[in-house]
């Protein structure tokens, strides 16, 4: 029965996509513009409310991120966000898109008040609107801090509506308060995944809303604990001010709320961590993020076999490709810091583990390591399939040896250390969010993107628990959360006894390490560094890559380009590190030793407190003079 439900879940989403993108299923949708709900919609039947709510899902995108962070070996872009060199823009897509996306949920909520039938007939659609209203407000909050709340369907023909919208900014606390109220409304009327009818699989669930609430509560509790009002401004000359609603929760209440909501999702049994070690092997986590159909992985699994994604953006090869050039770009490539953050199989970091093999040989640092490292980073001189019809030898031919592929290509991966190459995929090459599908060319990838997944919920539970207990957490709480993630990653469990002999290790630091490793590339890193108030010190350090001095790389020749070296020293203007360097505010992260290739030196990086919230775009201030700019911009 569960397999039937899972397949139905994907089937529903395909029907949803068909309705919205092809316009073939609902006469109602055929009359709607693609980008907004028309005022001609009367919202008179449950079906009309359902169709309107379905449109909200199409606002979700492929939101990978973290490039140019301390964990990233890719620093492309101009200006570089991770360098702290952003400028005040004229316009901003995050601002414009999310305010545009807020109007349809508000319209549905308003129309529900006039619905002539029983509210129960439209309750789920209304709950979906409340969820998406919270979702888009949270995206604005993370970017700008306090913003004007949009809880009405803006009407250009109404002076009253214009005056309400074009007013001053609400404080971040007022925005968070509204988000939490909206999520409670959604939670009250969304069905559990366990009770979801087969024809509704893939829609929002009670567990998705609770998971999102846990995310919001943890984010804001840590922001208030570590950052406080430092970025608020006075609300008059700069910033959004610090006004708090009378019923605003305390920091402790938010931590406890995050823990409780996460625990309820974990205990629901509605979702399961992906663990296909037996079917695929130690690289099984690679396939969690590029599942399409049986042609996308050696075990013949499909999206229906993924029970970890709680809320996701749905893509389809026929109806909606990702169209972001992901595999070609390989956006999630690691820095030296991240490479050393991956644990060894004994559960200890590289500087303390007896099974770490060091850096002497090109592949030695991959030995006895976390499966996430093996899944998401190419190992030197190991063979990997390309993708499409002929890129890097073409896509995977599962069950066929590389030498029997019938293609005259050397599939071995050789690190790129001869040119800065646009500061992308130098030294190490990432694999997360890439495909080896034989039929997928550039921009044709069509796997789903996880907006919320169970592993994040477990990390929220562990972090909130540790914060509540003043930096401590029991082995029992670790076993029901982080240790499940470590188990599927081939890493020994985290226990109090394991780290006790090492003064530089502590539980909060290890939980944050797990979060960084597990969610790398999923657009959390900058927000995490800011809410922990470590962004300035962390992001202003050197970003380094491969160890060169004293390793095989110094003299190795490229086996795919005979007679030429793998590493060309003169190609890299910043050279190698000359001394041991701290890379983190947490002492448990291994320092970078002399001899590492410098990708982006600390002198290029200029993060300050003002970067914790981005500037309001100038065109919005011109439209609404009541808006005041964030501090420092």
Automatic annotation (TrEMBL):
One of its GO terms (cellular component) is cell outer membrane. Residues 331-633 form the RagB/SusD domain. The keyword Nucleotide-binding does not apply. It is found in: Cell outer membrane. InterPro entries: SusD-like_N, SusD_RagB_dom, TPR-like_helical_dom_sf. Residues 92-218 form the SusD-like N-terminal domain. Belongs to the SusD family. This is SusD/RagB family lipoprotein. It comes from Zobellia galactanivorans (strain DSM 12802 / CCUG 47099 / CIP 106680 / NCIMB 13871 / Dsij). The lineage of its organism: Bacteria, Pseudomonadati, Bacteroidota, Flavobacteriia, Flavobacteriales.
């Amino acid at each position: 029965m569960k397999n039937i439900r899972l397949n139905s879940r994907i089937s529903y989403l395909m029907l949803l996509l068909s309705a919205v993108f092809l316009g073939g299923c609902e006469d109602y949708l055929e009359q709607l513009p693609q980008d907004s709900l028309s005022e001609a919609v009367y919202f008179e039947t449950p079906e009309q409310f359902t169709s309107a709510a379905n449109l909200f899902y199409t606002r979700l995108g492929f939101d990978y991120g973290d490039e140019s962070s301390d964990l990233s070996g890719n620093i492309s872009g101009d200006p570089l966000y991770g360098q702290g060199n952003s400028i005040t823009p004229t316009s901003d897509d995050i601002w414009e898109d999310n305010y545009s996306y807020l109007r349809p949920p508000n319209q549905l909520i308003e129309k529900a008040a006039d619905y002539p039938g029983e509210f129960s007939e439209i309750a789920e659609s209304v709950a979906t609107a409340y969820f998406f209203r919270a979702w888009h407000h949270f995206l604005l909050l993370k970017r700008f801090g306090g913003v004007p709340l949009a809880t009405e369907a803006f009407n250009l023909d109404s002076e009253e509506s214009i005056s309400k919208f074009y007013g001053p900014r609400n404080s971040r606390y007022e925005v968070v308060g509204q988000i939490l109220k909206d999520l409670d409304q959604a939670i009250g009327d969304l069905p559990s995944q366990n009770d979801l009818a087969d024809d509704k699989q893939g829609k929002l669930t009670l567990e998705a809303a609770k998971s999102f609430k846990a995310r919001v509560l943890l984010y804001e509790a840590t922001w208030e604990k570590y950052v406080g009002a430092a970025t608020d401004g006075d609300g008059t000359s700069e910033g959004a001010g610090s006004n708090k609603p009378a019923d605003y929760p305390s920091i402790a209440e938010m931590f406890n709320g995050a823990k409780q909501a996460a625990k309820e999702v974990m205990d629901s049994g509605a979702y399961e961590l992906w663990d296909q070690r037996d079917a695929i092997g130690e690289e099984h986590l690679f396939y969690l993020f590029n599942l399409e159909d049986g042609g996308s992985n050696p075990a013949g699994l499909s999206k229906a076999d993924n029970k970890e994604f709680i809320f996701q953006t749905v893509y389809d090869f026929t109806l909606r490709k990702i169209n972001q050039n992901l595999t070609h770009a390989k956006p999630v490539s690691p820095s030296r810091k991240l490479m050393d953050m991956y644990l060894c199989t004994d559960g200890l970091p590289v500087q303390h583990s007896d099974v770490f093999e060091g850096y002497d040989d090109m592949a030695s640092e991959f030995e006895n390591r976390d499966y996430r490292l093996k899944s998401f980073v190419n190992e030197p001189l190991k063979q990997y399939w390309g993708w499409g019809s002929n890129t890097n030898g073409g896509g995977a031919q599962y069950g066929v040896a590389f030498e029997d592929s019938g293609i005259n290509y050397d599939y071995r991966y050789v690190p790129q250390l001869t040119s800065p190459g646009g500061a992308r995929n130098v030294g190490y090459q990432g694999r997360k969010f890439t495909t080896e599908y034989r039929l997928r060319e550039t921009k044709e990838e069509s796997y789903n993107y996880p907006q919320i997944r169970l592993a994040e919920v477990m990390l929220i539970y562990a972090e909130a628990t540790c914060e509540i207990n003043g930096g401590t957490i029991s082995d029992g709480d670790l076993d029901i959360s982080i240790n499940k993630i470590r188990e599927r990653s081939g890493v020994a469990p985290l226990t109090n006894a394991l780290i006790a002999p090492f003064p530089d290790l502590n539980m909060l630091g290890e939980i944050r390490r797990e979060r960084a490793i597990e969610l790398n590339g999923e657009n959390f890193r900058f927000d995490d560094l800011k809410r922990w108030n470590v962004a300035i010190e962390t992001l202003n350090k050197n970003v380094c890559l491969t160890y060169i001095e004293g390793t095989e790389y110094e003299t190795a020749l490229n086996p795919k380009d005979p007679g030429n070296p793998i590493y060309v020293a003169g190609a890299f203007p910043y050279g190698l590190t000359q001394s041991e360097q701290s890379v983190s505010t947490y002492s448990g992260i291994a320092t970078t030793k002399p001899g590492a290739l410098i990708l982006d030196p600390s002198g290029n990086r200029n993060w300050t407190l003002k970067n914790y919230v981005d500037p309001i775009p100038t065109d919005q201030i011109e439209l609404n003079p009541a808006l005041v700019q964030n501090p420092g911009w």
